[in-house]
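[User]
Protein folding is very new to me. Any chance you could explain this protein sequence and its structure tokens? I have pasted everything here:
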Amino acid sequence: MLVKNVTIVVFNLDNNAFEPIGEINQYTSLMWPDKFNGHATFELCAPITEENKTLIRKGNVLWCGCDNAAMIEIIESDKNDSGEKTYKVKGRTLEMLLTTRIIWGTYDCNNKYTSTAMYEIVDRQCVNPSRIERKIPFLECAVDENLGKKITSQKTGGEVYEALQSLASDSDLGFSVLFRPIEKKLIFKVIEGVDRSIMPTAAGDSNPVIFSTDLEDILSSSYYTNDQDVKSVALVMGEGEGASRKRVTSGDDSSSGFLRRETYVDARDLRSEVLNDDGSTTALSEADYNATLNNRGDEKLSECVVIETFEAQMRVTGGQYTYGVDYNKGDKVIIEDLELGVQVVGKITEVSENYDDEYELVITFGYSYPTLIQKIKRQIS
């Protein structure tokens, strides 16, 4: 967790040594985020000094003593009217490394936990690939805890990162690349939040976490909800031509009237004959292939849900809860803003610890606003 006057340690992992090369002690502002499902973007403003010149370079990794680290990707140099020279630096947390690899060929899993599928994809494409050139240095996989539901899925091509996000979202999971400088490791880990929105039902259960304007936990907030893209049932079309194309229906096919919202999923990329890494092929049974189609439909439906976002600036000192102790990213909590007339059970999707003139903690609950590119992908998929 960031604290006031935090020191930023800089690493250059390209040298394969995993050793710090210096510290950034002079900066004017820092926004350090942590996301539940995927990478987040940091922002740093620092004066242009001789020391900072040697440290603020693209590809260097910044670490603030927490579980996550981030890579410098964008550097802007600026000089104002007073002659003050400043760096404006941006980059993404190390989950971005998973965008640099694709699924080379086809990955197929049959009746495995979602976390198992995610670990297998990362292991085969990034940790222990058949070609050593494809290995991501220092990356390892955590121990599989069999999280999520059991799925039958097939992925061909595309970014490893996109495949992981799709699988994780469908099972309400997240993932991180943990930064371990003492062990000199990067650890890919599938994570599952804790439901802190329910009342205790047995001895030893934790109490619910309730953020409320009435309790003065929330200093400022904004609420957004949108159900324009909600779908309830998917017709999934697989391989074949014309009337012989294989098809299944996913979702709530019994829904009717105004509650029924249909979508079409073209899954012709899913094949009943899978190409293995060694060039051989494996034929799927009809049941296994249909299960694969069903999973694709479920993945698409998981993207077409009610978007509900509650973003709040929290009271850091004197509050009843402490971030990292009473709650963490991925947890479900109760949020109520009596002035907005909103009470929701929200998942903590992103936490941003910001230091400017003073420390502030910004938490995003629910799902983030869909970006333009997400909307375009949804329309053409």
